[in-house]
Amino acid sequence: MSQLIQFLSNGSATGSCKKAKAPVVYQGDLTIAATTGAAALPLLAPITAGLPAAFGGQVVNRGCHALLATINYLNGDDCDDCTTPDALAVVPVTVIIPKNAAFPIPDGFLTGITVQTLDAAGAPVNVQVAQDVDFYSAFQPCCGSAVLVP
């Protein structure tokens, strides 16, 4: 039995077809061991200079403590093709990830993430029971090239 597989939607206009471009994917997996967590731990290790940056994503916090995530975003692109390369700088942004939650982090190109566990008052604290944290990011670059880490 033959099967016809259609890759383009019926409504696609001439010139609007998608290019075959592999997505940029990053994942991080961290187990915060008992008696640790108050000090920053790497969830997504710093991405090496010259590699594509991650973009947005989701942190899944499987534990009894909220997390203080420090996300290192790239900043400085003026979106003008005539002024490339842009002078990109790394800007740390902090976000609180609730306990036992899947949390989408703000969109933007990023180069690394560290996390610390927090007590109910919002102060860094070591955990008494191991806590698992996962990160996942995937996007498909829309241009001829991806944003590279400086």
Task: Describe the structure using short key phrases.
elongated, Jelly Rolls, 7 strands, seven-stranded antiparallel β-sheet
CATH architecture: Sandwich
Sheet/helix structural class: mainly beta
Q: For the record, what CATH class applies? A: Mainly Beta
Whole-number count of domains? 1
How many beta-strand runs? 7
Helix content range of the residues, please?
Answer: under 10%
**What is the CATH third-level topology name?**
Jelly Rolls
Gross geometry: elongated
Rg over CA atoms, rounded to whole Å, is 19 Å
**Strand coverage percent:** over 45%
How is the biggest beta sheet arranged? 7 strands, antiparallel
Pattern of helices and strands = EEEEEEE
Number of helices: 0
Average pLDDT, all residues:
87
Unreliable stretches (pLDDT < 50, length at least 5) are 4-8
Kindly, what is the distance between the CA atoms of the first and last residues, rounded to a whole number of angstroms? 52 Å
List the helices and strands and how they pair.
Elements: E1 24-32, E2 41-44, E3 54-62, E4 66-75, E5 89-97, E6 101-118, E7 131-139
Antiparallel strand pairs: 1-7, 2-6, 3-6, 3-7, 4-5, 4-6
In short, what is this structure?
By secondary structure, this protein is mostly beta strands. The protein has a single domain (24-139), classed as Jelly Rolls, CATH 2.60.120. The chain has strands at 24-32, 41-44, 54-62, 66-75, 89-97, 101-118, 131-139.
